[in-house]
Structures are given as C-alpha cells and as structure tokens.
Write a structure and sequence with these properties.
Blueprint: H1 2-6, H2 10-38, H3 42-47, H4 60-68, H5 71-102, H6 108-117, H7 123-137, H8 143-147, H9 154-165, H10 169-177, H11 182-193, H12 195-211, H13 214-219, H14 228-238, H15 243-274
Length: about 280
C-alpha cells in the first residue's frame, strides 16, 4: 500500500488529497452547522441562518434542553438500556458463535442457516406479535420491553462464528490436552483473541440500541421512561420554532455515538477485515 501510494506522481497526489478534503468538508459541514447553530440564540439564527456564530455563545441552550426539556433523563434511560443490550448481545453472540463454529452436533449447519435467515425478516412483520408478547408479560412502559427482546442478534452470532472459525485448531487441541473444558477454552483463549470482533459487535449494537426509535415509540408511553430518540421527537414537536434548542438536543443525542465510533474505529475496521466480511 505504501509503495503503491509513493509511485503516484506528486501532482496526482495533490489533486487526490484536495478532492478528499473537499469531500470530507462536505460530509462534516452538517455536523458543524448543527453544533454552531445550537450555540446561537433564536433571533440571530433566523436573522442569518448560515452565519457560523451569533453575537455570543449560548451555552444556556444545552442547560435548558437537559433540565427543562428533561433530555438528561432521556439520555440516562437510553444509556442504561444501551449498556444492557450491548452486554447481552455480546454474551449471546459469543456463546452462539462458538457453538456454531467449534461444536459439532446434528443439524448444526441447518439451524445456523435458519437463524441467519431471520435477518431477512423485516422488523415491521414481528412488531405486532412482539408487542402482544409485551402486553402478555406486562412489560409495556418497562425497561424489560426495551432490553430482553433484543438480547439476541443473528448478525452478531454470524460475526463471532466467522472469527472463531479463523482461530487455529491447534490452540484448542493444546488446551484440551492440558485439561481445559469448553467454557475455559472459550473464555480464556477464544474471547481474548476475539477482541476486534467483539469491539465491532459492541459498536454495531451500541449504534442500533442508542438510535432505536420505532420500538420505544410503540411500547413506551410514560414520559419518564422515554429514550433519547423519543425526546428528540418531543423536542421538535414542542419547540419547532426554536431551532437552537432542537440542534442542541440533536448534538447531545449524536455525541455518544460519535465518541464510541471514534474510540472503537481501529477495532471496528480490524474486526470487519478479519472476519472475511465484504
């Protein structure tokens, strides 16, 4: 890769870098606009909406969104739900991926294909049956309805299975000779070697759980139980004429996902590359 980039003439490299900088600036501008608008007052926003800043930085917008509009409570609810979903999906994906990759049992491949096929089922198809289950269990307006149905993921199981299949058999055989059982092999050998894949799964699960909107909208009616996406919708409906408030809420909602992706980016790319996904 390095030799290939050095062989490109310097003139073409300059044009390439300039093009990439322009593309990057175009993609980053909406986020820049969102943050800067959140720090303006409403009057200066409508006076010149393209101006990067107003007469002063209005940090009070964030204070109002967090306290008055209760976005802080919504973010805490979402953080708790997201952490539970991420940890649950990692646990079930590691266990399922190990079973499908390393344990031979009758019907293993057929069962895996059937489980993987559930990815093709649209969420709207299972929305009503799942909601009826929540009513049966009396889980409406409770954390259980936002956590337990999403503890299992076919994509995560597939991701971990692909990674576990690439681990040499010699490591497992050596552990068996030393007297290790399957759980010891999994948690002492496979899991430490699979941190890139686990980080990838954690990132994907975090983004999905944090940004979930349709399902919380269906099963959560009590405002004290709202998640951040419901809070944003409520904010837009109640303060549609106050653009800085809406942008401040959007900034608070998107900030955790950006930080998680930045911190896990190296593991995310490595995990995708080492599992053979295209």
């Amino acid at each position: 890769m390095l030799g290939r980039s050095q062989s490109i003439p310097w003139g073409q490299r300059i044009l390439l870098y300039a093009f990439l900088m322009i593309v990057g600036a175009v993609m980053a501008y909406p986020f820049f606009f969102m943050v800067t608008t959140s720090l303006k007052d409403n009057q200066s926003t409508f006076a010149n909406i393209l101006a990067p800043f107003g007469p002063s930085l209005e940090w009070a917008n964030y204070q109002a969104v967090l306290s008055t509009i209760n976005m802080g409570r919504y973010m805490l609810n979402t953080a708790f739900i997201t952490i539970c979903v991420v940890l649950g999906q990692i646990f079930t994906s590691v266990m399922g991926g190990f079973a499908f990759a390393r344990i031979k049992f009758p019907g293993r491949d057929a069962l895996f294909r059937a489980y993987l096929g559930t990815i093709m089922i649209p969420f709207m198809v299972v929305l009503i049956p799942t909601y009826k289950l929540m009513l049966l269990f009396n889980w409406v307006d409770r954390y259980e309805s936002l956590i337990i149905p999403w503890l299992f993921t076919a994509y995560g199981t597939f991701l971990m299975r692909q990674f576990f299949r690439n681990i040499p058999n010699e490591l497992e055989e050596a552990a068996v000779i030393d007297g290790a059982n399957r759980f010891t092999i999994l948690w002492r050998i496979f899991v430490p070697l699979s941190m890139p894949a686990i980080a990838t799964q954690a990132t994907i699960s975090f983004l999905y759980a944090w940004n979930s909107f349709i399902w919380p909208l269906v099963v959560i009616h009590n405002k004290e139980m709202y998640v951040v996406t419901q809070g944003l919708a409520d904010l837009q409906g109640g303060y549609h004429a106050n653009v800085p408030y809406i942008m401040a809420g959007a900034t608070l909602a998107i900030l955790p996902t950006v930080l998680v992706y930045i911190l896990a980016q190296r593991y995310f790319v490595e995990g995708i590359a080492t599992t053979g996904l295209k």
